[in-house]
Write a structure and sequence with these properties.
Number of domains: 2
Shape: globular
Strand content: under 5%
Helix content: 25-40%
Number of strands: 2
Radius of gyration: 14 Å
Largest sheet: 2 strands, antiparallel
Number of helices: 3
Structural class: mainly alpha
Order of helices and strands: HEEHH
Distance between the termini: 19 Å
Strand order of the largest sheet: 1-2
């Protein structure tokens, strides 16, 4: 699921091979109910720069809480993964160069 927002797309809307998880403009338009509280760009999450394993697991277990403890803006899902699932996702993202 992460790849859908955190990866750039070509002019036809297809993910660009070898650019997965490098950050991109959010491919979903902001709904009118969201007001200004909507991210316009998803950051790079390939390798999870700036996140320790512990902080990245916390983000996925505690509903999208960033390094400083702030709630991430929509459309970032409020994941409530169990610790093992979150650790597996984090290990995968950390393994990407």
């Amino acid at each position: 699921m992460c790849v859908e927002c955190h990866s750039p797309r070509d002019q036809d809307g297809r993910l660009i091979p070898d650019k997965e998880f490098t950050g991109a403009p959010i491919p979903v338009e902001r709904p009118s109910w969201a007001g200004g509280d909507w991210a316009l760009r998803a950051p790079r999450n390939r390798g999870l720069p700036g996140y320790s394993v512990e902080l990245a697991v916390r983000l996925l277990v505690n509903g999208g809480v960033d390094r400083e403890g702030r709630q991430l803006r929509a459309p970032m899902p409020r994941f409530r993964m169990n610790v093992q699932d979150a650790a597996d996702v984090v290990a995968y993202l950390k393994s990407l160069p």
